[in-house]
Write a structure and sequence with these properties.
With 454 residues, the protein is α+β, with helices and mostly antiparallel strands. It is built from six helices and 24 strands. The protein has two domains: 267 residues, no CATH class; 100 residues, Immunoglobulin-like.
């Protein structure tokens, strides 16, 4: 970084070049913080871009002068502007609203009322179900004098010139535009920047028509805030089936007297803790002598009974059967299994999930890759930047929250700032600087030293 000083080249640089460099610095920083998902820092960047354009309007004649030729007030304004940009570049996500107000206060200190002071919205939300004909209202607030005859109306270009944007309101304090929702870029898992260029025509000091362009960034949030996964242990019943075969059996009536027969039932039961699968039993013959008859007289979960009839005759082999009985048996086993639910979230909407066990574990992965987890071991609601979870009995309500500005806290103090003296008789450094400024001794040095250029 080259310091701007009385002997530096920047001291002789054209003011327009220096101010354009500041604008590019803000643009680059906006690109960086958008990728990081630092939404509300983008608002601060927009305010700085607006402030730079307002400076250009008020110091229009000074833009083509060299830095060492402009007046003291212009020196001060550039120095203050550069200081605010340096603070923005440090990336502190604190006191954003206060810092925006500081920029507005700076703009109100320009010689004339600032043309534009703010733009809303900072971000838009697009859902898959949105109608293609839906429009988003974009408003610029500021001080807009009545348009003189012959001047074209203000226009807004969002991303591409062919996006049809309509001016819906033009007043002294507000300009409103209707932008088709299809004009905004939107991605599934990242914030998308949209460049809006407000063009306002005005009459210059020499009665010429001038056009000023205010470039701002409007963000599009991803389609959803992220993914929510719920995991918990469940007792699941599993049916286990196996096949059973009896020991080899034989029924022989040939040892009996001629024409004697045997009718015998055979009982089979499942193993301990098992039940028979009805309809699966079979009689398997491993060899026989003569004819035989058989019938299954019972086939249920408790037992299987087969009845076998054999008869011996006088001529030829008879009355003998070698066999076995088969059947399937089953048992129900309870196993611990991990259940996994994925909850679909939508910006600003409530999602109800019922019958969530006490040991449930929640993992929320936001679109920017940050992950938070918590357990359902408390009745207190869980909340982070994008999701809020509230317990209602065995049910849970999840709400995908739209981003909200961080709580205003003073930004971290710079380490190189010396602490003020506690000795009332010892002069304070700030008082000394003010005294020098009032005396006009260090006006030129202080104002130029404020301004730096990368």
């Amino acid at each position: 970084m080259v310091k701007v000083g009385p002997t530096g080249q920047e001291h002789k640089a054209v003011v327009r070049t220096l101010v354009d460099d500041l604008s590019k610095k803000v643009d680059n920083r906006i690109d960086e913080i958008t990728k990081k998902g630092q939404i509300f820092l983008v608002e601060l960047g927009n305010q700085l871009k607006i402030a730079i354009e307002n400076f250009k309007i008020d110091y229009e004649t000074a833009l083509d002068q060299r830095f060492n030729q402009i007046d003291r007030l212009a020196h001060e304004k550039i120095g203050e502007l550069n200081e605010m940009i340096e603070e923005f570049d440090r990336g502190h996500e604190t006191s954003i609203s206060q810092r925006c107000e500081k920029i507005k206060h700076w703009m109100n200190g320009l010689p004339s009322a600032p043309l534009v002071t703010a733009v809303t919205p900072l971000f838009v939300v697009i859902n898959d179900e949105d109608d293609e004909d839906k429009s988003i209202s974009v408003e610029f607030t500021g001080n807009f004098p009545p348009r003189k005859q012959g001047l074209p109306p203000p226009t807004l270009i969002v991303n591409e010139p062919d996006v049809k944007v309509t001016l819906t309101k033009e007043s002294e304090k507000s300009l409103k535009f209707s932008v088709p929702i299809l004009g905004f870029c939107c991605e599934n898992d990242t914030i998308s920047p949209n460049i809006g260029e407000l063009q306002i025509s005005r009459i210059g000091k020499n009665q010429e028509t001038l056009r000023n362009t205010y470039s701002v960034t409007i963000l599009t949030l991803p389609f959803d805030p992220g993914t929510l996964e719920i995991t918990y242990q469940m007792k699941r019943e599993e049916r286990i089936v196996r096949s059973r075969t009896s020991v080899p059996l034989i029924q022989d009536s040939s040892q009996k007297a001629e024409f004697k027969s045997i009718t015998h039932p055979y009982h089979f039961k499942p193993g301990p803790g098992w039940k028979i699968v009805p309809g699966t039993t079979k009689f398997v013959t491993n060899g026989s002598k003569g004819n035989f008859n058989l019938v299954c007289i019972k086939d249920d979960e408790e037992s299987v009974i087969w009845e076998l009839f054999t008869k011996s005759v006088s001529k030829g082999p008879s009355g003998e059967v070698n066999f076995s009985i088969t059947f399937d048996e089953y048992q129900i086993v309870k196993k611990d299994e991990q259940e996994r639910r994925l909850v679909e979230l939508e910006w600003g909407c409530d999602v109800y999930e019922s019958e969530i066990p006490e040991d449930a574990h929640f993992i929320f992965t936001s679109f920017d890759g940050n992950q938070r987890s918590w357990k359902q071991d408390t009745d207190e609601p869980f909340s982070n930047s994008y999701i809020e979870a509230t317990k209602r009995g065995k049910n849970m309500v999840f709400k995908a929250k739209l981003p909200t500005p961080p709580v205003d806290n003073p930004p971290p103090s710079r380490q190189d700032n010396p602490a003020p003296s506690n000795n009332p008789t010892e002069p304070n450094l700030g008082d000394c600087c003010c005294l020098l400024f009032m005396l006009g001794i260090a006006v030129k040095h202080v104002s130029t030293a404020f301004f730096t250029r990368r």
